[in-house]
Write a structure and sequence with these properties.
This protein has about 475 residues and is mainly alpha-helical. It folds into three domains: about 20-115, Fumarase C, Chain B, domain 1 (Orthogonal Bundle); about 120-215 and about 225-365, Fumarase C, Chain A, domain 2; about 375-430, Orthogonal Bundle (Ribonucleotide Reductase Protein R1, domain 1), CATH 1.10.40.30. The protein is built from 20 helices and six strands. The chain has a two-stranded antiparallel ribbon with strand order 1-2. A hairpin with a 2-residue loop joins strand 1 (about 160-165) and strand 2 (about 165-170). The termini are far apart. About 45% of the residues are buried. The structure holds arginine. Arginine (ARG) binds near residues 118, 325, 327 and 330.
Length: about 475
């Protein structure tokens, strides 16, 4: 293949080279597309650094002010789309610095004193990730609120609870929704945990070994909202486990989203008919006029694929990397940004889809009494009246077989027939086998009993306020 004429040498690092990089190499080497998204963080970091250089007397106060004003000008240009990104300047760091030189002149060359692109990019990504994590935490909270809104007023709306997707025992719709509030609460706490772990400043680690300039890392850390500077410069520039951490948590959260999405797909079928997702989040068929498809839920179910894929990509990308910086690390930006974009969009759609969903209480109640869902309640009543639970289990098993043969629900069995199976069964017991009686009979903390569910609702109203 014929090589294109080598480009001009880099103004940033070309000193020791006779020729510039090949055009193909420039394209391959650049990270501009992802880096555009780091521009605000990059400028925040540079401003903190310039202020610190001035404060420490490493540059004059006037020079620091010039740099900061210039950086704000560049920020404005980027924000308003008046900034020309140059591929040959490789990344956000050199694009900004190069433009800064055009704006403020040669003093721009002093900005890079006591730092390197290695600590600069590590700082930028931590700031970017922190902001994204904060957004995700809030979005998860919106999802939790949507579930809580669904729950309210439905402590006595019965539906079947499933194990193995077989009707198991009656539960309330509120109780069901609150299970998801719990699941997403753990995601929220995990996101906050990742945030806490990453909130240390790499800035001032320089290339890997620190710097002879009398910089103040506490000051820049504080200015950027970090809890403290990273303790070890070598680790600071090479660490990307916070990127993997973030995507791992995102992947788990997406897994949870997919679990609910799957239930929506099932419950929105005419066969189940429990849920009706609003028109705004449902779609039709181009050929079958009657169709009402749960596309939002199906896409939500699918998204974990690309997010979990990003985690695998990141694992393989960072596996076996020696300390400290290697260019491989540049490739960690895109998978994380994509994963967070996908998770953010999913959480947003999920909250809206939940808000749009209405339920068919009659269909839920119909199924809640099918499948001998209150068989355990009868066994529990026999046990409470003194029959050993294992014997009670056996008696009720025989009664279920009788019901199956005679096409009856448990509470429809005539007492005269029931006592033939066991004289310990009485009418009061049979009367308590409706789904509502079943949930109301629960006593244990955390159960589906309406008073327990009301306690949970009160807890979450407070916690999510
Ligand atoms: N563009 C690089 C990245 O995204 C910045 C750091 C470059 N450092 C270096 N020594 N080449 O990771």
């Amino acid at each position: 293949m014929t090589e294109k004429t080598p480009q001009t040498k880099s103004a940033m690092w070309g000193g020791r080279f006779a020729e510039g990089p090949a055009e193909a190499m420039q394209r391959f080497n650049a990270s501009i597309d992802e880096d555009k998204r780091l521009a605000m963080e990059d400028i925040d970091g540079s401003i903190a650094h310039a202020a610190m250089l001035g404060g420490q007397g490493i540059i004059t106060a006037d020079e620091a002010e010039t740099l900061i004003d210039g950086l704000e000008t560049v920020r404005g240009e980027i924000k308003t789309g008046h900034f020309t990104w140059k591929l040959e300047l490789e990344d956000v760091h050199m694009n900004v610095e190069s433009r800064l030189r055009e704006v403020v002149g040669d003093v721009a060359g002093k900005l890079h004193t006591g730092r390197s692109r290695n600590d600069q990019v590590a700082t930028d990504i931590r700031l970017y990730t922190r902001r994204a994590l904060d957004q995700m935490v809030e979005m998860v909270r919106q999802v939790q609120k949507a579930f809580l809104d669904q729950a309210k007023g439905h402590e006595e709306t019965v539906m079947p609870g499933f194990t193995h997707l077989q009707i198991a025992q009656p539960i309330s719709y509120a109780f069901y929704c609150l299970a998801y509030v719990e699941m997403f609460e753990r995601d929220r706490l995990r996101l906050l945990g990742v945030r806490e772990l990453l909130n240390e400043s790499p800035l001032g680690a320089a290339a890997l070994a620190g710097t002879p300039h009398p910089i103040n890392r506490e000051q820049t850390a504080k200015a950027l909202g970090f809890d403290r500077p990273c303790r070890n410069a070598l680790d600071a520039v090479s660490a990307r486990d916070f990127v993997l951490d973030t995507v791992a948590v995102a992947s788990l959260c997406a897994t949870h989203i997919s679990r609910y999405a799957e239930e929506v797909v099932i419950y929105a079928t005419p066969q189940f008919g429990y849920f009706r997702v609003g028109d705004a989040y449902s779609t039709g068929s181009s050929i079958m006029p009657q169709k009402r498809n749960p596309d939002a839920a199906e896409l939500l179910r699918a998204k974990v694929g690309s997010i979990a894929g990003a985690f695998t990509t990141l694992t393989l990308c960072t596996k076996g990397l020696p300390l400290a910086y290697s260019k491989d690390l540049q490739d960690t930006k895109k998978p994380m940004m994509d994963a967070l974009d996908t998770l953010g969009m999913s959480l947003d759609i999920l909250a809206r889809m939940i808000d749009s969903t209405t339920i068919n209480a009659a269909a839920m109640e119909r199924d809640a009494s099918r499948g001998y869902s209150t068989a355990t309640d009868l066994a529990d009543q026999l046990a409470a009246a003194g029959t050993p639970f294992r014997d009670a289990h056996h008696i009720v098993g025989a009664l279920v077989a009788y019901c199956e043969k005679n096409d009856l629900m448990l509470h429809e069995v005539p007492l005269s027939d029931a006592v033939k199976i066991s004289p310990r069964i009485n009418q009061d017991m049979l009367d308590r086998l409706t789904p509502l009686a079943s949930i109301c009979a629960k006593r244990s903390a955390g159960s589906t009993a309406p008073e327990e569910v009301l306690k949970q609702i009160a807890f979450w109203e407070d916690a999510l306020a």
